[in-house]
Amino acid sequence: MPVPMLQIAMDYIALAPALAMAVKVAPEVDIIEIGTPLCKAVGLDAIRAMRELVGPDKLILADFKSPDVGGLEAKMAFDAGADMMTVIGGAALATVGSALAVAKEEKKEMLMELTGVRDILARAREWRQIGVERMVYHRGWDEQAFSRQWVEEDRTVIRQLIDMGFKVTVTGGITKPLLAFFQSLPVSVVICGRGIRETPDPTFVTKRAPQRRRGASRCMRPVTRSLKACRRAGRTSSFTPSCSAPTCRPTRGPGSMAWAPGIARHTSCARSMRVWCTATSTTSTG
To answer: Nearest CA to 129 among 102, 157, 166?
Structure first.
């Protein structure tokens, strides 16, 4: 059975801590998710900044959970640099179809997000008929707060969805001990948020998570090593390149609209980096 891909959910409400976390874990995860709170707090700049940071080869998902204007929101996400976006399961079939059409045109991916969907299998049959291939089976944040546990019924439904031909992503309070619950299921992606972000050493956790592939951007490894001194000093690490390589796109500095203190970003190489430390908020929601 193939090992599922690992996705980290960046459910922050500020951009700087999300990018600082990406510096730590991007080489070890397969997909970086711009979580719904971050999409709402920062907008498309969150996708653009993350793409600049991790380079062209890392998969980025924008968790829009679009309820309407699916085609327009899909185009917005993909133009900003996302490889995938989500549509909420309660959306009209026309919304789903329009987002799917844009995804296919752009050679990207659209996923159905099952939060709040009651008759999952009935809706799934409708989506399958119009060509939907991916979905996110989600135990929601608020459900977790009310002690909603993963149960055998979840496993049964997930298996039925996979048997229908869907590539299923699972998410919702997933930690390493909980992975055994899904071990018998050929899920495509496992999403982990707090189980990575809130650990003392997120890099250590992700290095030991089973993954199908390593899609690390080449420039991230030396960046991570060069910032250890800042982390030891108890500060959020940040850097800016000073690079004369002709293939290295210039990085916007503190004077640009897209810049925020504490953001680490680079695009094509890791030459001649200037490193400093700055204190930033690390507030997150999920």
So the answer is: 166
Reported pTM: 0.74
CATH: 3.40.50.1820, 3.30.300.30, 3.40.50.2300, 3.20.20.70. Which one for 5-207?
3.20.20.70
Model pLDDT, residue 177: 84
- What is the pLDDT at residue 142? 57
* Assigned token pair, 83: 């490889």
- Domains in the chain: boundaries: 5-207, 220-278
- Cβ neighbours of 203 (radius 10 Å): 17
